Amino acid sequence: DAKTTQPTSMDCAEGRAANLPCNHSTISGNEYVYWYRQIHSQGPQYIIHGLKNNETNEMASLIITEDRKSSTLILPHATLRDTAVYYCIVSNAGNMLTFGGGTRLMVKP
Amino acid sequence: NAGVMQNPRHLVRRRGQEARLRCSPMKGHSHVYWYRQLPEEGLKFMVYLQKENIIDESGMPKERFSAEFPKEGPSILRIQQVVRGDSAAYFCASSPLTRTGPPSFGPGTRLTVT
Which end of chain B is less enclosed by CB atoms within 10 A, N or C? Predict the structure, then answer.
C-alpha cells in the first residue's frame, strides 16, 4: 500500500472549516483514499473514501487532485466534538488498512 | 444493524495469565481484522481472517499470540502468558463478503497486565 504524509497537528476555530491535507504521491491506479478519525482512544470512525472523484457525505467532503497524488478532507463547520486524530490511508479495496501517525486536529472555541 | 462488538471492554490480567478478546463482526460481514494500539502510539495491524481461515498474520507476534474466526461465533484473539508490554487497546474491524465497503471498527478492548 502507498505511504501517506500528513501534518502532525493542526488547530481550527470552532465553526470554521477544517481542511486536512494528505500527500500520497506513490498511490497506484486501483488504490482508494480512506479517511478515518479516532476520538480520544475510541475505535476509529470511518469518515469518507474516494478513488478519483471528489466525494461528499453528511460528515465531510473529500477533494482528490487530478493526479491523485494528494487529497484534502474538509469538515465544513468544525465543532469541539471534531477534535480527534485524523488518518488518511491509501489502500486497495478490501485490503487491511495501514495507519500512519495521522493529524491531531484541535478545534478551539 | 448493530455495529462491530467487542468484549470485554476492559480486561485486567496478571503476568503469566491468558487473555481472550472477542470480536463479533457486523451482520453480513465475513472478514475480520485485528489491530493493536500501544499507549500514545498508532494502530498496528496484527491479523486478517475470514471464516475459518487466516489470510494475513504478518503483524502478529510469533509467540504467545493466536487468532481464530470459527464458522460459528465471534473471532477470538488469544494472548498466552501475558507480559506488561501486552498492555494496549485491541481493536477489531470487519468488512463484508465482497470487501467493497470500508471496514468498520469496534470500540476496542483495553487490556491491562499487572
Answer: N
Which residue in this structure is represented by grid cell 501486552? B86
Contacts of B89 in chain A (CB under 8 A): 41
Closest CA to B19 of B33, B35, B8: B8
How does pLDDT run across B38-60, given as a tens digit for each residue? 988 889 999 999 988 999 999 99
Residues 6+ apart with CB under 8 A from B73: none
Sign of the C-alpha dihedral computed for residues B44, B47, B49 and B55 taken in this order: positive
Cα B27 to the chain's mean position, in Å?
A: 17
Please give the angle made by the CA atoms of B33, A86 and B69, to the nearest 5 degrees: 5
Q: What span, in angstroms and rounded, lies between the C-alpha atoms of B112 and B97? A: 33
A94 lies within 8 A of chain B by CB:
yes
Answer yes or no: do B4 and A43 touch at CB < 8 A: yes
Model pLDDT for residues B75-112, shown as the tens digit of each residue? 999 999 999 999 999 999 998 866 667 899 999 999 99
